[in-house]
Queue: 2 jobs
Job 1
Amino acid sequence: MNTSMRVNTNPNTRRRVVSVLLALSASALVVPGAATAQEPADTMAPPAPISWGACPKAEPPYPDPSPKAQCATVEVPLDWSRPKGPKIGIFVARYRATDPARRIGVLMSNPGGPGAAGADDALYADDPIGGYSPAMLQRFDMIGFDPRGIGRSQNADCDETITGSIPARPRNAAEFERLSTLNGRLADSCLKQTGPLAAHMDGESVARDMDAIRAALGERRISFLGHSYGTFLGERYARLFPDNLRALALDSAMDPDRPDAERYLTDGSVTIDSALKRLATWCEKDAACALHGQDLTAVTDELFARADAGRLREPGPDGPTRTKVDADRLSDFLTFALGKWNPEEAARQLAALHTGKGEVYWVPTGIGSDSQLVLCRDYDFRIRDYAQYRAIRERVAKAAPHVRYNAQALDTVLGCQGWTMSPKSQPAQAKGDLPPVLVANATHDMATPLPGAQRMARAFPKASLFTMDVVGHWLYRRGGTEEAMRVIDAYLTSPKD
């Protein structure tokens, strides 16, 4: 999912848990309710070999790509059910292995989003902060691509002026209906301004694009590293092209079981609630906490009681302001304050809300149309009406009583109400042997909660689940979670044949 949140860990409290999941079947991913695979109506001609050239310069303030990077465009069918129909271009970048004699092959990657420009993984592969280790650069040709409709791959376009009128948190049946209606208008605007591509940005289509890139590279198999939503693409690729995978590493994994709105929202909300309890435990022990000596969960419960009664107001430098803070705004604040996991800062802002004196940083809610075009096709989050929505919210609040809900998950669920491009059926598992798979996840990940990662690992015949007891999202990073980077690199470079 959204990859803007990064892990910030306390090394004194971090620990590693590694669990290996036993084989569940001999040759198939086990996913309930899998639909029949959608096979192309005719056959696409073999793709032409890629013609590599210089990469475009970056727009300021971003740095230019590595001078060693190469770029190209690969043509793929706009609609994979019509392989001989209209084509679109997929922007691809390559950073060649620096030690050809020890080259393993191709490592394709995707940084998630949805909506992230994946070609950057190769364009900046040797960046000393965000790039790969020298050992990885020696062994692989790094291949990144901008998914269809994203970045330099024929960007999708929608009427974003509609979004300002969409109710962020519908409070009655009329507002829920308005939200659904305006979401539908937004979807229709995407089709009108982008064309048919807007209806073909789902994960299955991107996975098929990935295999077209593999074929154009002349590679029999690829290794793949997916982060966040990129793990969904990895799962889709494994489902469609199991024999074409050498290794599959999934960092911060999405739930492959196509959860409905309630389970998706519950998993994310329980994760935020547990992060608040973790903050409360830290606050009891550390005098740096602005609420040290107080029961932090009780403080939060009291803030909700005041918000429900209309008595909670934004803090100011000299005391409470006249601006009210309702319960939804408080839940939204807690999601992002806890998800960033800066304990001192989160406690300071909670103390400001509690006393009425100080400053709070409010994060805007909402989901971008890029994400809607993808997620509302990959998942079925449709809710029948406001009565069902309210019942779901009430049950989720009971499961996560100190935070009530996960704002990022709720943004996604609400963004799919009324979306006129209906969810796409899940493809069936193709025949073929899969390699052992590595799934990695934080124990407290608000964007890709641990239960989804556990289901992702169980979906494969042979999989290992690596977890770190931290709060945050995306483990493959230098710094506090560098251990995960080492584990993933070791998996990718180990023999698979």
Note: DSSP finds 14 helices and nine strands in the chain.
Job 2
Amino acid sequence: MKRFHVHLHVEDLARNIAFYSAMFKQTPARTEDDYAKWMLQDPPVNFAISTRGDKPGLDHLGFQVESTEELQALKTQAEQADMALLDEGETTCCYARSDKYWVTDPQGIAWEQFHTLDNIPVFSQKNQAAPQAGACCAPKKVIEVASAGCCAPTSAQVANGAKACC
């Protein structure tokens, strides 16, 4: 089963936790000093907020899957559509260890496709030891494509260093 994923940057975490807890009629499944996540069942959504962004608003969208096979199926679908794909493999972000890749839509919105493998005690870890700096999960290359305000380059264009197709 796929679960839709939404991640927003917020300025006031406590105020937003109160708002979304009331809206969803449930408390977050995970709360940290800079982050909160609701794992909603109806509709199935992984809805996350954090204070780690440059400005409030949408950070990225995505699909969380339950298995390596589901992730591979989504990846194959993206590759067959010749979407530019940034494969991070196994990595850490948002208090989780995941296998993931990214694509960017024509509006420049980053889409994360991921399979969560485990929880971790800090926002990000490098090699399970040292914390990583940075705003959120979207890697710099995806952010650069998104900030270009155009469409995502094809896989071949990415291989040649392209950042946008127009």
Note: The CA atoms of residues 81 and 96 lie 29 Å apart.
